[in-house]
Amino acid sequence: MLRTSRSRWFTVPLKTPSLLVITAIAGLALSACSGAHGSSVAAGTLDSGFGAGGKVTTDLGSPADRANAVVVQADGKIVAAGSTQDPAQGDNFAVVRYTPGGKLDSGFGDGGKSVTDFGGKSDVVAAVALQPDGKIVAVGTSHGTTTGDNIALARYASDGRLDSGFGTGGRVSSDLGTAADHGNAVAVQSDGKILVAGSTKDPVQGDNFVVLRYAPDGKLDAGFGDGGKVSTDFGGRSDIAKSIAVESDGKIVVAGTSSGTATGDNIALARYTSDGKPESGFGVNGQVSSDLGTAADHGNAVAVQSDGKIVVVGSTKDPVQGDNFLVARYAPDGKLDSGFGAGGRTATDFGGKADVAAAVALAQDGKVVVVGTSSGTSTGDNIALARYTSDGKLDSGFGTGGQVSTDLGTAADHGNAVALQSNGDIVVAGTTKDPAQGDNFVVLRYVV
Questions:
Q1: What is the pLDDT of residue 21?
Q2: How far apart are CA 1 and CA 20, in angstroms?
Q3: In this model, does residue 388 exceed pLDDT 60?
Q4: How far is it, in rounded angstroms, from Cα 66 to Cα 79?
Q5: What is the 3-state secondary structure (H, E, C) of the chain?
Q6: CA 315, CA 309: separation in Å to the nearest integer?
């Protein structure tokens, strides 16, 4: 998830504004209020000044339009990215921009929308980032190409057109020589170089973490790792990186899951030097694998605090409740931070059969904002939002005891990404199911 030091952008925060990193309501309660909205508006309430009652849905003309990532521009415009389904081409990259009030931005792409085909059977955006010059970088996977699944990048000008100065006509497709190379997260450095994290399949080890760095023109950066890439094995049957953050000293933190280890699925973190080597001062040879005592502990998003502590969100499996939101904090050396939650972690149950956190953002006051999905509730799948204090407790001044569950009246409402505006308001992007249209993009804004 991305933001700047002014809390403008989604998913992973930065310790310096010069690095842009990339790198997802039933029973609203009245609680602490935001001065920006007046004393009558409770923190965690949908913002009536955005879209229709705090939300906007977008049908791109297919039965499967899904938003997986979001960023907020300096001018307050909101960029959501994911995929849309073409009957002939399959899924394509989809990038949509909204005005600060929640209307489609007619000055972007085709009526606010830009769609890109990479030639795969399914081309899906997983992450999005903004460059300092306002260009938009979208990263994901082109599935089912002639070389298997490839890491896919597209760069758009500020008006939504593909940037001809990047790759081939604005697109880059990276085949790392395996059947399955996936791009899941993106970060843009201040020098314009682009970091991508995801996974690559080793014929012996299975899926491994992979981090790549591209020059501003879209070529792999030979000065990073081995020919522009570094692969890391955590010993699981499948080690998949889901999120990336860049520290102020240029070190790179990547989080995900190591599945199928001797202790089940573990949270996996790696830290690399700025040139792509494992960072020896972190964990064991730059790696940390966290078993929280359950069969399934998953890391889905990462953020780095200004003091160097690392916040990871995802899910942990309770034997009775099923999957719960998980927030864990690590010290800069990779050890769990005993000053956060209970022994460095906190779990939150929303009452669904599976409550999974997908994205995180850090507020200016140190509070932690987490979004995801509560699946299998009495109203179906709901968008789930939680805010925690800086020491890992649910924030009683937000929603109902720190939690907000949003039912949009459909069977499947999913929260996939989060961004914070400059005033702290929370922007969430995801998917809602329309009975006639199928899945649509949905963007919501909550006041704080």
A1: 35
A2: 11
A3: yes
A4: 13
A5: CCCCCCCCCCCCCCCCCCCECCCCCECCCCCCECCCCCCCCECCCECCCCCECCEEEECCCCCECEEEEEEECCCCCEEEEEEEEECCCEEEEEEEEECCCCCECCCCCECCEEEECCCCCEEEEEEEEECCCCCEEEEEEEEEECCEEEEEEEEECCCCCECCCCCECCEEEECCCCCEEEEEEEEECCCCCEEEEEEEEECCCEEEEEEEEECCCCCECCCCCCCCEEEECCCCCEEEEEEEEECCCCCEEEEEEEEEECCEEEEEEEEECCCCCECCCCCECCEEEECCCCCEEEEEEEEECCCCCEEEEEEEEECCCEEEEEEEEECCCCCECCCCCECCEEEECCCCCEEEEEEEEECCCCCEEEEEEEEEECCEEEEEEEEECCCCCECCCCCECCEEEECCCCCEEEEEEEEECCCCCEEEEEEEEECCCEEEEEEEEECC
A6: 19
What residues pair up with 206 in beta bridges, in sequence order?
Answer: 202
* pTM, 2 dp: 0.91
302 near 12, Cβ under 8 Å?
A: yes
- Mean of pLDDT values over 281-308: 96
40: pLDDT confidence band, cut at 50, 70 and 90? confident
Which structure tokens are listed for 290? 């966290």
Give the pLDDT of residue 208. Answer: 98
Region 325-346 average pLDDT: 98
SS (H, E, C) 347-371: EECCCCCEEEEEEEEECCCCCEEEE
The residue ranges of every structural domain in the chain are 55-446
For residue 56, give both structure tokens: 């906007």
CA 198, CA 208: separation in Å to the nearest integer?
A: 8
Tokens 């799948």 identify what position?
381
For domain 55-446, the question of CATH label 2.120.10.30 is answered with yes
What pLDDT score does 84 carry?
98
